[in-house]
């Protein structure tokens, strides 16, 4: 438990040290990243789940550029989440688009 706590605190410290440097990143994105890093580091030290979720397909809707309020547009997407484990990670693929004509296809690993 102490090792996990120290690792998470080190991750937060390292993230803050990098975030202090001047960058062209949006402050909201920087804040979300800083807040997420300790949770990611913590999850890496958790035990691999003993049960397996089924393959999942998810649909989502949202609002693009909700923070800046400049180019807001409704968004939509679909994602396939595999139940196959690669160590502690599970693969995923998806597509996402908006009513402004923006679209993206992605693939990655998620930490469960």
Q: How do the helices and strands follow one another from N- to C-terminus?
A: HHEEEE
Q: Strands across the major sheet, in which order?
A: 1-2-3-4
The share of residues in helices is 25-40%
Give the total of beta strands. 4
Oligomer type = single chain
Keywords:
112 residues; alpha+beta; 2 domains; four-stranded antiparallel sheet
Task: Kindly describe this structure.
α1 packs antiparallel against α2. The protein has a 4-stranded antiparallel β-sheet with strand order 1-2-3-4. It is built from 2 helices and 4 strands; from the N terminus they run ααββββ. β2 and β3 (89-98) form a beta hairpin. It has 112 residues and is an alpha+beta fold.
């Amino acid at each position: 438990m102490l090792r996990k706590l120290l690792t998470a605190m080190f991750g937060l410290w390292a993230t803050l040290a990098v975030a202090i440097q001047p960058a062209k990143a949006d402050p909201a994105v920087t804040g979300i990243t800083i807040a997420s890093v300790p949770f990611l580091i913590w999850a890496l030290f958790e035990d691999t789940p003993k049960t397996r979720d089924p393959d999942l397909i998810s649909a989502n809707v949202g609002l693009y550029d909700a923070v800046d309020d400049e180019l807001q547009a409704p968004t939509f997407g679909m994602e396939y989440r595999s139940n196959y484990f690669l160590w502690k990670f599970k693969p995923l693929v998806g597509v996402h688009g908006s009513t402004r004509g923006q679209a993206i296809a992605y693939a990655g690993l998620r930490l469960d």
